[in-house]
Amino acid sequence: MTFYDASVPAFLQILGSLSGLLSKAEAHCAAKNIQPDVLLGARLYPDMLPLSRQIQLACDFAAKSCARLAHVNVPSTPDTEKTFAELRQRLAKTGDYLKSFTAPQFEGAEGREVTFPAGPDRTVTLKGQQFLNNFAFPNFYFHAAIAHGLLRHNGVEIGKRDFLGVK
Amino acid sequence: MTFYDASVPAFLQILGSLSGLLSKAEAHCAAKNIQPDVLLGARLYPDMLPLSRQIQLACDFAAKSCARLAHVNVPSTPDTEKTFAELRQRLAKTGDYLKSFTAPQFEGAEGREVTFPAGPDRTVTLKGQQFLNNFAFPNFYFHAAIAHGLLRHNGVEIGKRDFLGVK
C-alpha cells in the first residue's frame, strides 16, 4: 500500500458518485417539471453556497489537494458550469486529471511539507499526511455531502448508497 | 508516517468539531427559545435521520472502523442520548476509545482484510486501506457533514471552519 492508494482513489470514488447524484437530480427536474436552474441554485440556507458551487468546490479540493501532495503546479479551473451536463463534465475532467497521477509521484508525500492557502490572507504548512487528513479530506467530503443533503432536502430520491457509489 | 496516522487522527478531529457544533446548537436553542428536542429531532427531509442519529452514526463509524482495522472486538453502543450534553458525552467517549488505540495495532492493517456488514444481509471484505477509503471515511464524513448542514439549515450560526475544527 502506498500514499497514492490512501489519497487518489478516495477522491475518485466520490467524484464518480457525485456524477450519479447529478444525473438523478436532472431526472428529478424533468419528472417534476422543475427548472434545472432552480435546483442548481438551491441552498440549504440563504448564506450557504448553491448546489453548483458545492460540486465545483468538491472538484477543486480533489484536484488541488492531489497537485499539492505531488508537488506539481496547482490547477486553476474557472467556475463556468451552468447545467447538470456541464457539472458532470467538470467532475469527469477532474477525475481524468486525478487519474493522470502515478504512485511514484506520491512516494514520500506523506512526510513532505505542503503549504496551502487557508483563507484569503494566510497560508498553513503541514506534512502531507496531516494535510490530507486535516484539510483535504474534510473539505472534500464536506462539499460532497452538503451537495447530497441539499438534493435530499429538495426531494431527489437518493440515498447514502448513491453517495458511497455502491451499486 | 504510519497507517495509524492515516486513520485515527482524522476521526478524532471531526469528533471534536462535532462537539463544538452541538454546543453552538444548544446555545442557539437557548437564545432563540427553541426546545432542544426540536433541533435534536430535526431532519433535512422527512425520511432522513434526525440530528441525534447523525451524531450517533458518526460516532459508530469512527469507533467501529478503528476496531475493525485493529482487529479487536467491535464495540456496540446503545443509542440512548436524548440531550445535547449526552451527545457531547457520546462524542467524548468515542474520542477516548479512539485514543486508546496505539500505532502498533495498526501496523500492516492497510493490507489486512476487513470483513464488515454492508446492509442487513450481506458482508463485504476489503483490504484495510480500501475499507478506510471506500467505506469508513465516506460514511463517517457523510453523517458529520449532514449534521452540519442540518444545523445550518436550521439557522445555527456555524461555518465550515467549525466543521474542520479550525480556530
What features would you describe in this structure?
2 copies of one chain form a homodimer. Chain A has about 170 residues and is mainly alpha-helical. Chain A has 6 helices and 2 strands, in the order ααααββαα. The first copy, chain A, has a two-stranded antiparallel ribbon. In chain A, β1 and β2 (about 125) form a beta hairpin. In chain A, α3 packs parallel to α4 (about 85-100). The model of chain A has no long low-confidence stretch (mean pLDDT about 95).
Secondary-structure map:
2 copies of one chain form a homodimer.
Chain A: H1 3-32, H2 36-40, H3 51-70, H4 84-99, E1 113-117, E2 123-127, H5 128-153, H6 160-164
Antiparallel strand pairs in A: 1-2
Helix pairs in contact in A: 1-3, 1-4, 1-5, 3-4, 3-5
One letter per element, helices H and strands E, the order of chain A comes to: HHHHEEHH
Tally of DSSP helical segments of chain A: 6
Overall mean pLDDT score of chain A?
96
Q: How much of the residues of chain A is beta strand, in percent? A: 5-15%
Give the strand tally of chain A. Answer: 2
Radius of gyration of chain A from the CA trace? 16 Å
Structural class of chain A: mainly alpha
Q: Main attributes?
A:
6 helices; 167 residues; mainly alpha; homodimer; two-stranded antiparallel ribbon
